[in-house]
Amino acid sequence: MVSLLLLLLLGLCNAHDGSDHGADSEILKDQSDTEDISTTILRMNNGSSELILEGDLMIPRTRNAMKCISKRYNCLWPKSANGNVEVPYILSSKYDQSEKNTIVNAMKDIEYNTCVRYVPRARQTAYLDIEPRYGCATTPGYLGDKQTVSLQRFGCISHGIIQHELLHTLGFYHEHTRSDRNQYVKINWDNVIEFFKPQFRQMDTKNLNTSYDYTSIMHYARRSLGKFNSETITPIPDASVPIGKSRRLSDIDIVRINRLYKCWRYL
Question: Which residues are the active-site ones (predicted)?
Fold first, then answer.
């Protein structure tokens, strides 16, 4: 428990409040088309006042959230009688129609090859509240209550970033922290900015009998959080393998969703 609290404190940034921020800010100008998804997410979240773990996981002060952090893949959205996993959501009216379309299309791409279905919220207690708050971040797994997904305008509204955050809400964490990662990547600890080293900590994950996926939408880029933009993650044994470059779900991401939620007809 002490180590977990220490990890949360190490991930805390204090420069801003958690409210909506002006979309015309010069500092937060949209660069998402020219950089890796993880680079954009980490840049957009720099300065958030939320408790942030692993770069983009907001930690609310609830027992359920702590359970989802300590036990990977343990907080799953329930299945409906029809066999689908229905995830209710609300889209903030502060998004324009183009932004709403981008978010909905990212959801439809997840739906296409899985049994996950995103449905507009009616009166459900548990739902995703998608808002243009500061940064690109969310809480992990199913909490049984309102769950905020922060997708700031002009920076976070891209297909890949939206899917990255939606996979967090389904219970998935970053690929470079999985339990067998040392067989596939080398963490160059001397190159990692000291404050961010907890974001590279290896976790006791359930990998659902899937291979390590360099192409996962959940993989950090090779220079994420490096000193002077130095390489923090190196693929092994072939250091030239691209990592953190995907802009949509990989085939293995899709398999994992279906295995985790027992979407048998899609396997």
Answer: 165
| The token pair that represents 152 in the structure block | 């700031």
176 marked as part of a ligand binding site: no
The pTM of the full predicted model, rounded to 2 decimals, is 0.83
Catalytic residue among 99, 131, 165, 175: 165
Residue 194 among the catalytic residues:
no
Q: Is 174 annotated as a binding residue?
A: yes
3-class DSSP state of 192: strand
Domain with CATH 3.40.390.10 in the chain: 175-252
CATH of domain 1-173+253-267: 3.40.390
φ and ψ at residue 138, rounded to 5 degrees: -160, 175
**Residue 143 contacts residue 65 (beta carbons within 8 Å):** yes
Q: How does pLDDT run across 8-37, given as a tens digit for each residue? A: 333 333 333 344 544 333 333 444 445 888
- CA 266 vs. chain centroid, Å, equals 23
CATH 3.30.70.250 assigned to 175-252: no
Closest among 161, 174, 203, 188 to 33, alpha carbons compared: 161
pLDDT for 90-100, tens place per residue? 999 999 999 99
Helix (H, G, I), strand (E, B) or coil at 258: helix
For residue 16, say whether it is annotated as part of any ligand binding site. no
